[in-house]
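Design a sequence for this backbone.
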């Protein structure tokens, strides 16, 4: 009887200890703060294997169109085609004068129309060759003006020489009669082309001056 009683007491005491241990472990679990979730690490921008990462190329600044770009100098303000066309015409005129003058020097008075019946006179030939060579020098002046536009101030003198040649043809016409029709054509070109070139040159300078004034006013 006593043995059963002691066994029952021992069993009940063991149950009490187990229940106490369970409560203790449960209380420790409840009272212990939960672990905070670890924050995600940011992704690496550079690889660990040492390879270089290509960075995006910087955007190039947008280039302004020709209409948006403001000219900075007189050369930019002036239209290039005005001077280019003018210089081409002056150069061609100079080449034509040189070609005609060289032909006159080489052929002499026999190159003039209606001169086949006239006997060759060395004195006249010398004087004719001299005047033709001077005329060739005028053509060379036109070529230099077309090549270097800064020498365009010589244009007035060159055009004046050619124009005076046309006036000389008029005086000869009035004094000695009507020449060959080809010489009349040359007289017209001598009297018309030089003034046209001077008017054209004056128009280019005037237009450039106006553009320069507009450019200066826009910068104020």
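Sequence:
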């Amino acid at each position: 009887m006593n043995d059963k009683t002691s066994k029952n007491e021992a069993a009940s005491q063991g149950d009490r200890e187990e229940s106490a241990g369970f409560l203790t472990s449960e209380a420790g679990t409840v009272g212990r703060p939960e672990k905070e979730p670890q924050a995600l690490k940011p992704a690496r921008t550079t690889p660990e294997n040492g390879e270089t990462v290509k960075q995006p190329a910087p955007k190039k600044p947008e280039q302004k169109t020709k209409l948006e770009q403001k000219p900075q100098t007189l050369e930019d303000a002036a239209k290039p085609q005005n001077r280019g066309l003018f210089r081409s015409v002056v150069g061609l005129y100079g080449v034509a004068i040189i070609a005609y003058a060289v032909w006159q020097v080489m052929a002499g008075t026999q190159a003039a129309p209606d001169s086949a019946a006239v006997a060759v006179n060395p004195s006249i030939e010398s004087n004719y060759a001299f005047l033709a060579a001077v005329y060739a020098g005028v053509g060379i002046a036109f070529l230099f003006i077309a090549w270097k536009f800064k020498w365009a101030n010589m244009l007035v003198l060159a055009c004046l020489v050619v124009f005076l040649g046309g006036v000389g043809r008029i005086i000869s016409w009035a004094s000695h009669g009507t020449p060959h029709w080809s010489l009349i054509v040359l007289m017209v070109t001598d009297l018309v082309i030089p003034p046209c070139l001077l008017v054209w040159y004056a128009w280019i300078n005037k237009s450039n001056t106006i553009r320069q004034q507009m450019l200066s006013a826009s910068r104020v």
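Confidence is low (pLDDT under 50) at residues 22-31.
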